[in-house]
Amino acid sequence: MSAIKIILRIVVLGSVLFALIATSPFISRTAARERKGKTKARAHQARESRSGDTLRNRVQSMIAIDETAGEDMEVRRVALSALGNHAGTVVVMDPNTGRIYSIVNQHWALREGFKPCSTIKLVTGLAGLNEKLIDTSEPTNLSNNYRMDLTKALAHSNNAYFQKVGGRVGFEKLLFYARQLGLGEKTGINASNESAGRVPLNKSGFALNHMSSHGDDFQVTAVQLATLVSAMTNGGKLLTPYIPNAPHIPQEELQPRVRRQIKMDTEVWSHMVPGMIGAVNYGSGRRAFNPLETIAGKTGTCIQEGTWVGLFASYAPLANPRLTVVVIGLGPDARGHFPAAVAGEIYRNLNHRFGMLDSPQLANSKAPIVRQGLWINNAAKGNTVKSVLMSVPKRTEGNVNSSTNSKIEAQTPTPPRVSSIRL
């Protein structure tokens, strides 16, 4: 038999075999499922795109009616530019006095409550520390061969860690700390129709654990988050934020309006900060990274009533905090930790005015500072300096994301402009 005939027979047999396979009921059903799945995915993407456009248009119309009297117009321009044409709200505040520099999309920031998602881990962590249920000297055992400490749990926003802590703290005590930190009550800001948000009525078992990591049945406003994170850096003072009657008031005339002093041990606040630095340096909030100053922050991303919510609550610079920045995004603009990117651009573009290198004179600093690889916290009384020996998180290559146990890339030293980022 000639080689040509052999080749022809092989081709014919191959065609017959392919036809048999293609017409097989199993193969046909599999192909049909794949086509159906792709069609559904395209339809979902189209719906999400339309929903995102609707949200963005609505937000732009709300921003257009913001009352800007008394705001710092430079800060507002920077915040507006960072948010761009995205569905979100931004609060920029002085963490020491409560002065509001700017609120972009005031309706959402003051009058809309959002699920806090993983930012509730700030409450859970503070409660666990103050109740002496978190051992900062060694990692917590989460499973047979899986251990993690508070710093990594905050940096990577590990759900299992905070669910375990929340279960130990219990619902009543968690709600006590949440209320002490200002959740479920109005901040008292001098603006109309402020929302008090919402706290859960009761949780137990798995529902309690999940609430401790995801913030189920909480509703928080951006302004509430701003006062909460400010209290973490100003020594536990829960401030009443305010919009000045005039934008150019001398700093020495701005006195803090303290709603209450949150009763927590000094070390509690200090133990939270390394993980918040880690979130920005190498963890879930690394899109906020600023090489010129140290930022402490906490991310949150989850689904609320079928829509994505993204949050970032932060303050900087670490050595002498002068800005609190909170960003909340909704819909497609909530994903990919976009709120952290917005905050990062705000810090970078205001660094000339509010930033400083983290190396102030130790005797003059009232806030925790980084010095020679140690976490140093100045005592509130006198000039005594108290050192709490904790490792300060650094940006390193190949850090492991605890939620996925996969490697993540360290952020490049010069992040791109937020407005150029596509999600």
Query: What is the overall shape?
Result: globular
N-to-C span = 62 Å
The whole-number mean of residue pLDDT values reads 82
Number of helices: 13
Q: What is the H-and-E element order? A: HHHEEHHEEHHHHHEEHEEEHHEEEEE
What share of the residues does DSSP label as strand, in percent? 15-25%
Give the biggest beta sheet.
5 strands, antiparallel
What's the quaternary structure here? Answer: single chain
Topology, number of strands: 14
Structural class: alpha+beta
Cα-atom radius of gyration: 25 Å
State the strand order across the main sheet: 2-1-9-8-7
Fraction in helix: 25-40%
| Unreliably modeled segments | 359-392, 396-423
Describe the structure.
There is one protein chain. The chain has 423 residues and is α+β, with helices and mostly antiparallel strands. Helix content is 39%, strand content 17%. It contains 13 helices and 14 strands. The protein has helices spanning 3-22, 25-63, 73-83, 106-111, 120-130, 150-155, 159-169, 171-180, 205-214, 222-231, 266-281, 338-349, 351-354, and strands at residues 88-93, 100-104, 140-143, 146-148, 237-239, 258-261, 296-304, 307-316, 323-330, 369-371, 374-378, 385-391, 400-401, 406-407. The termini are far apart.
